[in-house]
Amino acid sequence: MRILNVAYQQLRRYGQTRVSWAQKLMFGLIKNDHYTVSFSDRDVAAFEAPLGIRDLGRKKANQRLLEMTKAVEPDLVIAGHCDIITNETLQAIKKQNPHCKIAHCNNDPLFVPSNVERIKHRASVVDAIFISTGRRELKMFEGIGARVYHMPNPVDASVENLNNAIRTDLPIDLLFCSNSDDFTKRLEMVKYLKDQLANEMNFKTYGNFGEPPVWGRDYDRALSQSKMGLNFNRQEIHYWYSSARMAQLAGNGILQYTHANLKFDELLPPESVVYFHEVDDLLKSIREFHHDDAKRQAWATRARDFFHTEMNSKLYAQYIVEASLQIPFSHDYVWARDIHLDGSMK
After folding, report:
1. Rounded Cα distance, 56 and 76, in Å
2. Could you say which of 14, 87, 203, 209 is the most buried, measured as most Cβ atoms within 10 Å of its Cβ?
């Protein structure tokens, strides 16, 4: 199958990036033997613009995408986070390639109002939308035009290539990395934990409290040295929503702590992720696992094995292809057991 993956590929960051779900999607498509071409809207706009001023290259980027679809003749266009590309351009792609299906993938949270409007805007012109919040919370997008699906954050064996679950010599006991303070009070909890644990363990909070953020290989190195990690979202309110941090920690064998409100215990195996309701419960669990390496290793191993077996980039990519083109599911996708092929709830 011929697929065009339209998403920001971070070309102009020259390696100083964090893990990209769009890149993992690309890897998964290729591993499934699909001929896959990428188009990075923000980078093309900047490359094509006078003086490299991205906003001046918006029109040209849309023109270049139409040129690419004409040349590639894709069976499927996957439009990720590509706000520079207009709905009019997506409609023109359909007119240009009548057999082509178009899907929109959105990995951002629904507690950001502008993101809800962005999804609704795309849903009016595409065939299917995939959102990283559990399907039962996506009813607001039904009936707009597109079929509606949940998608997870996957791991990729080439990216999440560590296994910290087998190690006991790791210098970082607990890790939390972030670079966004919008729509959140999570740093209050992080600060409380940092104060309580100051004399007990090495707790690194990159990007916060005077510690510089880490990107690219520096982020990889931070993960490679960590036993445990906090999977704190900016808000803990939506069913099965997590940032990509969940897959990054689990896939590398790093024991993680996640809020119980998200109900991931209904998706992930028992004794793989540590859930908490209140900060004092969390503090107690952190201390318990800190002093019991064997237990930490067992739980982290279970999570790592599950993600690499059932939530990997190959399954993730094939699910998006099958749902977009209405091909019967070839696998019992653990995250889609409550979803019919047409996107409706079971």
Report:
1. 28
2. 203
